[in-house]
Amino acid sequence: MRKILILLNLVLFSGALLYSIYQKEELIANGERLLLRLAPVDPRSLMQGDFMRLDYELARAITKKRPKNYRFPTHQAIITLDSRGVATFVSLATRPLQKGEKLLNFKTKHGRVMIVSDAWFFQEGEAKKFEKAQYGEFRILPDGKALLVGMMDKNLNKIE
Predict the structure, then answer these.
(1) How far, in Å, CA of 49 to CA of 53, rounded?
(2) DSSP SS3 for 143
(3) Helical segments of the chain, H only
C-alpha cells in the first residue's frame, strides 16, 4: 500500500510539473510581446551565481500611484503599449478596460510591487553582455499573465 501511495504521489507531482511547463510554453508561443523598461538595481550576487536583480519603471509607477495603505484588491494594472511594445502604466485595474488597454498581473513582496520575476539568471561570465540591458521582454496573455523571456538593449535588440 505504501508503494502505491508513493507511486501515485510521484505521478501526480510529475503531471503537475508537466502541465506547468506546458502552460509556460503556450504563453511563450501565443502571448503578445511586451517590453518593460528596467529600473536600476544591484546587478550581481555571488551567493546565487550570476544574475541581474530586476526592477521595472512600471512597478515603481504602480507603487507611486497607489494610495497609502492600499491593500491591492486586484493585483492587476491597466497598461498601454506604444508602437514598439513598450508598456506604460495607466491605472490600477479598478475599472473596465478601454480600447488599446491591457491587463498586467503583479504581486507584492515585502511591500514592493513585483512583476513576474525580480531576477534574470545567465551563464557564468556573461555579466558584461547583460550590463547593457534596458528592457525586459515578456509574453503576455489577455488575462494579464506574463512571462519574462529575455533582455533587450536600448535599441530593443535581444541580448543573446
Answers:
(1) 12
(2) coil
(3) 2-30, 57-65, 127-130
HSE toward the beta carbon, residue 120, CA cutoff 13 A = 28
57: cell is 519603471
Q: How far apart are CA 9 and CA 5, in angstroms?
A: 6
Taking only the tens place, the pLDDT of each residue in 104-140 is 999 887 778 888 888 787 777 777 787 888 999 999 9
Contact (CB, 8 A) for 108 and 26: no
User: What is the pLDDT at residue 46?
Assistant: 40
Distances from the Cα of 113 to the Cα of 18, 63, 106, 109, angstroms: 29, 6, 7, 7
Cα gap 91→70, rounded to integer Å: 13
Are 40 and 71 in contact by the 8 Å Cβ rule? The answer is no
Rg (CA), the chain: 18
Domain boundaries, given as residue ranges, for the chain: 1-30, 32-152
Q: What is the pTM of this model?
A: 0.77
